[in-house]
TrEMBL record:
The chain crosses the membrane at residues 46-69. The keyword Transmembrane helix applies. It comes from Paramecium pentaurelia. Keywords: Membrane, Transmembrane, Transmembrane helix. The keyword Transmembrane helix applies. This is Uncharacterized protein.
Length: 721
């Protein structure tokens, strides 16, 4: 093995002393000690000792150990001994591994759909919990010991918290104590993006959940703030559990002593969120659904939108006529599938219906074999997952033995007529493989349709040159593309121009760079085009190793980057994680820094010290920022709410209040309303007590034509918690 010493991963830290260095004959390694530059008072006294072990040029293990300056010498002694013990050079062993499906908002280029991606959770014997994508990209990695609260390493591989979507991985943190036996003990609570989740929490006894608990549902997100609440006995749900959404009870039922659902239940639809408040009501018998189940859409009022029957014996099979909602069913995409089940399998004719304010319409469907193997046969019209009121994409073709065969057309419904806008061929053998020339239509962002991918398939893999085209209603122009490997691995290589998510007339963003073996490597530029031309506005570096890990200085665009809200972020990446100082740029009239703050240097993604953050709905007409301090990953102390008109240069204080040391709002607060902007400036003010609004709150309005008159009270609310 040839190894060279690399300690570049700590360049941006202040290296005080390289305490140990191993020779080349052995596996190469080094210890580095440094002090965090952070002025954060929790750490100002603490020295950090790190052990880095490298194999084959890549960083393998990085073990932080906290030491106070007074005792650093003792620790160096210990570490040196460790190093002479060969066993410590071994890769960390994996104690626990599981794969879960989470929505990473990732785009599948083959199926042209958002996919739930499988990610792996690894727990290692060096006390890390690692969330990584299948390509090995680390999404979040942290010590199982929590948030530096304890300084010894704890072996709590029993019962770690598991996150189920990207937002949770980034924002959800659990807080609590460990008992003597290194198991969770006592009250545990949670924060979301630094703010306490008031409702959430409960007790652990020797690592087991006991008694009353309230938890975020598995797929909790900012747009799906649903909690479930009930009782645990030795980590098993028992008795009545209820679902709460926006303070209202929306479902629930009973668990029996075996922890099975039993009796009448209302459960949430898969992917329940603000725009898709779907619930199912019916009966469970020993954990299986039986008899009639109804499907409800809850919006203003509850409306029955579907349902059917499960077998009477309680095997949990669907039986007979069913009206089901599509996977991506939501207010603007009300697609249902109607047909028959036999012993839990679809048989015979199934129809696809779409409904909107104008009524109900059959839009597609086809045949399943009678045999009950759920195999599609004959002519089918399928619809896009994102079949919405404003973009109606469908696929016409033939199935043979459950596989697509021969010509398939992609059509768009334009009012009354179906217009062909894409498609291609599947092989005639019935393998379901795409072959020859294809035009694939993106339905990624149905609000802004018009992107197609044109190129060739060989054995279901993209090969050779592919172009990305944009139909902007006036003409069709090529805006991106590149080459796939001719070997038929479907891997991108060489120079590529990629189209960003949500590309449309007011957000013409492309990324330009190089692929090696299907992975982004080296410098990638972000280009933005508008009426004034096409400029490079950002970018950064991917590691050459082909893991798509971002390193060094990056200038990135925000998710909602459009010509009227040009927000960008600039700072350092370390192993794909933001670390150190990050600035927030906003370009309107002039490009200036309007916010930012510091992430921990270790890549835990923890915000430290003073931050100026943008409001979620920040845009030209509602330039609102939050300004305050993070301590221990929680918002604490005074947070100010600042606001400026689009033509002003200074932000002015408009509201804010106080967080206590647990990230909970406490005391007098002035808050802005959803939809706050210059023509609709509405604020609320009143008292919080431990995170809950109490007593008299008033709502005030300011007329933008008469700013000098200030805010005028328009409403009073009483909270009696
Ligand atoms: C993308 O979709 C295709 C076709 O549905 C599927 O075969 C493939 O596994 C998907 N890829 C990922 C990464 O999910
Ligand atoms: C819900 O109620 C609001 C206000 O009454 C109304 O504007 C809206 O159209 C309703 N939405 C639906 C889906 O019925
Ligand atoms: C902007 O320029 C880049 C780099 O030359 C190019 O690849 C991209 O297609 C252009 N964008 C648009 C929208 O034309």
């Amino acid at each position: 093995m040839s190894q060279a010493i690399r300690i570049q991963t700590v360049w941006n830290l202040q290296i005080l002393k390289k305490a140990y260095k191993f020779d080349e004959k052995h596996q190469m390694n080094s210890i580095v000690m440094f002090k965090l530059k952070s002025q954060h008072n929790l750490w100002s006294n603490i020295w950090f000792l790190f052990m880095f072990i490298h194999f084959n040029q890549s960083l393998l293990i990085k073990i932080p150990i906290f030491v106070y300056s007074q005792i650093k010498n003792q620790y160096i002694g210990k570490m040196t001994q460790l190093f002479q013990n060969k066993r410590n050079f071994q890769e960390p062993t994996i104690l626990h591994q599981e794969t879960i499906s989470v929505d990473l908002q990732k785009w599948n280029e083959t199926s042209l759909q958002h996919v739930k991606e499988k990610i792996q959770i690894l727990i290692t014997n060096d006390n890390y919990i690692i969330y990584q994508s299948q390509e090995g990209i680390i999404l979040r990695k942290y010590f199982i010991i929590y948030q530096f609260q304890k300084r010894e390493l704890i072996n709590d591989n029993f019962n770690p918290e598991i996150f189920h979507n990207l937002e949770q991985i980034l924002h959800l943190r659990w807080w609590g104590q460990f008992g003597k036996n290194q198991k969770k003990q006592g009250q545990w609570t949670a924060t979301w993006n630094g703010e306490a989740l008031l409702e959430v929490g409960g007790y652990y006894q020797e690592g087991l959940k006991e008694g009353l608990w309230t938890e975020p549902i598995k797929d909790y997100r900012t747009k799906a703030q649903v909690y479930e609440s009930g009782e645990y006995f030795h980590n098993e749900k028992v008795g009545r559990w209820l679902y709460y959404y926006k303070q209202n009870q929306i479902g629930g039922g009973l668990y029996n002593k075996q922890g099975q659902r039993n009796g009448k239940w209302i459960v949430l639809g898969e992917g329940f969120w603000d725009q898709s408040q779907v619930t199912y009501s019916g009966e469970y018998r020993y954990g299986n659904k039986v008899g009639n189940w109804d499907i409800w859409l809850n919006w203003n009022e509850s409306r029955k939108i579907g349902g059917g029957c499960y077998d009477k014996e309680g095997h949990g099979f669907k039986q007979g006529y069913w009206v089901e909602v599509s996977d991506k069913f939501e207010l603007l995409s009300q697609v249902t599938n109607i047909g028959e089940y036999k012993l839990g399998k679809k048989v015979g004719k199934w129809d696809i219906w779409h409904s909107n304010s104008e009524g109900n319409k059959k839009i597609g469907g086809g045949l399943y074999e009678k045999s009950g193997t759920e195999i599609k046969v004959g002519n089918w019209i399928e619809v896009s997952d994102q079949y919405t009121n404003f973009f109606q994409l469908m696929y016409h073709g033939v199935y043979k033995n459950g596989k697509k065969i021969n010509k398939w057309d992609t059509k768009k419904n334009d009012g009354q007529v179906n217009q062909k806008i894409g498609g291609g061929f599947y092989d005639g053998r019935g393998d379901g493989m795409k072959v020859g020339k294809w035009v694939e239509v993106s339905d990624k962002f149905p609000r802004y349709p018009g992107i197609t991918y044109n190129g060739e398939y060989k054995n279901n893999k993209k090969v050779g040159k592919w172009g990305i085209f944009w139909n902007n209603e006036e003409n069709i122009k090529q805006i991106g593309g590149g080459f796939y490997d001719d070997g038929g691995d479907g891997m991108k290589l060489g120079k590529w121009v990629e189209v960003s998510d949500g590309f449309y007339v007011y957000s013409q963003v492309t990324q330009v760079g190089e692929y090696k073996l299907g992975k982004k490597v080296g410098r990638w530029n972000i280009c933005y085009s508008d009426s004034e031309g096409n400029k490079t506005i950002g970018g950064g570096l991917y590691e050459e190793s082909g893991t798509e890990i971002k390193v060094g200085n990056w200038l990135e665009i925000s998710d909602e980057f459009t010509s009227y809200t040009q927000v960008m972020y600039q700072g350092q990446y370390l192993n794909n994680k933001k670390c150190g100082r990050w600035d927030i740029w906003f370009n309107f009239l002039e490009n200036q820094i309007i916010g930012g703050g510091t992430y921990d240097e270790e890549g835990y993604g923890i915000k430290l010290g003073n931050w100026v953050e943008l409001w979620d709905e920040f845009q030209i007409l509602s330039q609102v920022t939050y300004n305050g301090e993070y301590k221990n990953a929680k918002k604490v102390g005074k947070w100010d709410l600042l606001y400026r008109y689009y033509d002003e240069s200074e932000f002015k204080l408009i509201g804010g209040g106080q967080y206590n040391s647990d990230g909970i709002k406490d005391g007098y607060w002035v808050e802005i309303n959803n939809g706050f902007q210059w023509t609709s400036e509405i604020i609320d003010d009143g008292e919080y007590k431990k995170g809950k609004k109490v007593g008299k709150w008033s709502q005030q309005y300011r007329d933008w034509n008469k700013i000098e008159e200030g805010f005028i009270k328009i409403k009073e609310m009483i909270y009696d918690n």
